[in-house]
User: Fold Hexosyltransferase from Cucurbita maxima.
Amino acid sequence: MKLLRRWQRILILSLLSVSVFAPLVLVSHRLKTITSIGRREFIDDLWSRRRDVEALSSMEQEPGESLKGPKPIVFKDSDFQSREGINSLEFGSNPSKEHKDNRFDDGGEKNHSYKETGQHDRGAVKRDKNSRIAQSRSVVDYKVKEMTDQLIRAKVYLSFAPPGSNSHLTKELRQRVKELEHAVEEVTKDSALTKSALQKTKNMESSLVKAGHAYPDCSAMSSKLRAMTDNAEEQVRMQKKQVTYLVNLAARTTPKGFHCLSMRLTSEYFALPPPSERQLLEQKKLLHDTKLYHYAVFSDNVLACAVVVNSTVSSAKEPERIVFHLVTNSLNLPAMSMWFSLNPMGRATVEVLSMAEFEWLSREYDLGWKVHNFSDPRFTSELNYLRFYLPNIFPSLDKVVVLDHDVVVQKDLSGLWHVDMKGKVNGAVETCQENEASFLRMDMFINFSDPLIADEFDSKACTWAFGMNVFDLRRWREENLTARYHEYLRLSNERPILKGGSLPLGWVTFYNQTTAVERRWHMLGLGHDSTLPPDDIEKAAVIHYNGAWKPWLDIGFGEYKGLWSKHMDFNNPYLQQCNIHG
Assistant:
């Protein structure tokens, strides 16, 4: 038994010896295969690593706060006994102030700085990306211009070839022209410049060099290019005239849906029972109350008036003090009246008047009361000139704000009744700043070569705009400005002193009788300028779509249409029946 145990111990010790010495033998065998160069490189590498470690250990640490370990957290028994404390530890819950985890409070400023740095880096990357895109786009535009120039030169050389010529150079130029035109179309569509397009440019250049040797007459080339330039400029002028004509035609044309709406409302109007005498008496009291805010709109456009009234009432702080006087012609009176009967304006009062009711107009002003030397209905519409008879139309009122039908009200306008008029009749926004799109000069619409005009007015006087005007009717009556209006109206019908409709007549009628109001009250240009600053539009109390691009027309600027259409309910059954959409 003892012998057996002895042999077991010997076997175990032998195995241990083998496990220890076998790796040494194997490694020594591998070391023998290393060359002297390899041994030297191995030893040098070891020494270099040792020197790096020593250098790092010898460096002085930078001053600053040492790294801090995490703060130990000790929870109280109350934290686990309270249901609120337990919920504050649950995933997705919002801890209360009492159980707020403060483990990371010390690093709050650092985390904030890291966040700001990340935002700064992202902004820098975005700006760098945008600059690269702009640079790439400029390179592409330059190459497209170069390709276009090559096409022009190739077509000139082709024009020098005899009619019916089928020479090798002619065929080559025609082929290059087709290829390059196709390449230009691809670049325009994809906004990218392919390798094939660059190759086609090189091929065209080589063909043009050949053509230059074949047709060395530079004078003929310059003459042909000059003729082509003149022809292109003439085409551009014709296109501009056509665009202007079509835009003006669209601006003068009433959309088909608007005609449909007027007809439907008119047919429904005559089926309505007349209002009671009590309603008429109650409304009459409000219509003549000088303590209320009276607005006047002269228009034959039902939806445009609806937007003006809706936007004004919805922006008002005291809508019950608002009284609207809508003046239209006899043809649109039923439709206008029916619309506001079906769509009452809450606590505000709306009166619809027909100019046919103003019998005094034709009786007292039998010499004519509007300009007759224009064909554009925007200038010849009788409603445009009724604003010069405000004291006659509203004899019991002292002050009135006149709004054009192409405006949208965005702020409360009650402050206009407290504007210091400085003894003037008209309060308006000026348009005499040259750096603005609304800039106008007196001599643009008034003929100062006429001695009568030159003696009476200063061509450098500041101009102003219609669209939102405050009129002091008492001062108007005292100055008798309607008679002054008729004087210049008669002169303009006899001699060419004015152009452009009612605006220049307003300038001469209210000359030295206009005070400037702050620009925030009235912003112009949404009907002819698509580059207005959005911040200025948002801050304006009244935005004005003056120009041909009205918001209810298909040609209107899309970026401004939403400001107008949000004040109209296009789910109205009448609008849907007439296919009128926002």
Notes: Residues 180 and 199 are 10 Å apart (CA to CA). The longest strand covers residues 322-328. The longest helix spans residues 108-160. The radius of gyration is 42 Å.
